[in-house]
Amino acid sequence: MKIVIGVDIGGTKTKIGLVDQHGKCHAKTFFRTREYPELESFLDKIKSTSDELIESLEGEVSVLGCGIGAPNASSKNGTIENASNLVWKESVPILEKLKLRMPMPMRIMNDASAAALGEMLFGGANKMKDFIVITLGTGFGAGIVANGQLIDGYDGFAGELGHVDMTIGDGRLTGLGVKGGLEAYVSATGLKRTIMYMLSKYMTESRFRNIAYNDLHGEDITKAAEEGDEIALMAFDYTARIMALALANFTAFTQPEAFILMGGLTNSGKWILEPLEGYFNEYLLDVYKGKVKILKSGMHGKTAAICGAAALIWETQEH
Amino acid sequence: MKIVIGVDIGGTKTKIGLVDQHGKCHAKTFFRTREYPELESFLDKIKSTSDELIESLEGEVSVLGCGIGAPNASSKNGTIENASNLVWKESVPILEKLKLRMPMPMRIMNDASAAALGEMLFGGANKMKDFIVITLGTGFGAGIVANGQLIDGYDGFAGELGHVDMTIGDGRLTGLGVKGGLEAYVSATGLKRTIMYMLSKYMTESRFRNIAYNDLHGEDITKAAEEGDEIALMAFDYTARIMALALANFTAFTQPEAFILMGGLTNSGKWILEPLEGYFNEYLLDVYKGKVKILKSGMHGKTAAICGAAALIWETQEH
């Protein structure tokens, strides 16, 4: 069996899996990124984890290469640079260093761009030429496809839409210090911050008056919404409204046929997606109305990021 | 001599010229768009004006086709739809109707996208693969090139960046009713509105306290700035700051190598371009700093729009 190693480096977890040409993940595991703050030991861990996964497969296995998705990765430079949700802050020449340990074809890309490639190869976007994948995890990422091609940018850093300023230079600071940056509102972290904001703004009773910021998790907010907690409902509505305005703005850029959403926040289902749809159609310019779909990813949630990373190598193969 | 008819339909003027394969304009003229509020007579006027120009050329002339740039034009549908600065408000099937009068190869495109194509074929961008042309006229337009290709969008309406909302749903209304839309701030019209805003905000003495909004022209504001009028200086600074924030946001989208500026407002030279450069570098995300140029168009100001329109046809020719 021919497989590609897919590595998704996230702020919380680094996921590794073995992906076949149909986007099926045959073995996968993860480790906690922050447990390997030293780059060298982090790369050793990727190498040893990959080896273990390959050994776990039965039959003959041929490894075609390794694809990596990571926040703030530059496909052109093979680096991760100043990623706000990762422990290494400077420019990390990750591809060069990992190739020393694993000599094989290797590519790295912004995680959301990799996800967009995964959607084209394995997901629901395989007939679309113009779409944008939005990843809603710890941060906010975007992978842009236009004219059937992934948009890389001059230097490999296209699609950093989490740092778009929504407020003419005022508002919340993102992890990169961008005032009013979208990611500070629309992401798992943004939703937690909005809970704090709602607690400051209203006197409404809520379970969140008894939970510290650091003890707060996305799933708790979904559960609270389901139980009718008004602060949770207002926080989701506020998040959906800002996200809708951002997607309406992004539409004016490349006019995608669809936005494809993935990541933890999309699991909050109707609490975020229903108001999002409503506000989106309200904010959309007339010329775009009725032409832009909001879809959930066609890839399996638990392996979408791994398959997206593997798509970087599968894309280069004839199959 | 082989030539292409280039037509630039603007809110104020419709310009027509005859352009050779090197982007040289051999004859040109214009008429006032608003004098032809009926679509049929407007198209008759384009036909008769083109004929007169062709007759004015000496020697044998072979017309290869006609390229049209217009606000809110859809290249895919051959239409102009709901253009806020034009007299026809509905969807106008302009290509189909003009072809009846002038049977020849014909293409239409958003004026700023046509300008981007002109920059690639005839201007300063002929080696760049990732750049954005910004047209600063009555409105604000953008033509986006990424991976060496013009970004059209699903339906031909990519690049409508003048209607991006900069203020989370608050702020000035654009002609299309978008609250906080960029065009309401950064355009010749936006600059006039900002003069009014500065007159409302400050009590500073200014020549503009004696001029009515409808009597105000862009050139007056430049002249006032040159003479040290503080309201004019503040208005330019305010415009430059909002524009810089917008360009910094746009950078996060496709990461262009350069923004190429054209249109009336760029004639205000240092009053807008110098503060723009300063604010832009301040707002730009670290990962982009020092990598994104702001350039003035390499095409001749008076014919840039005509040559851009003609580029739609020249692009399809082998030469």
Automatic annotation (TrEMBL), chains A, B:
From which organism does this entry originate?
Flagellimonas nanhaiensis
Instruction: Please give the name of this protein.
Output: ROK family protein
Output the lineage of the source organism: Bacteria, Pseudomonadati, Bacteroidota, Flavobacteriia, Flavobacteriales
SUPFAM superfamilies reported for this sequence: Actin-like ATPase domain
Question: Per its UniProt record, what InterPro entries does this chain match?
Answer: ATPase_NBD, ROK, ROK_cs
Give the Pfam families listed for this entry: ROK (PF00480)
Similarity annotation: Belongs to the ROK (NagC/XylR) family.
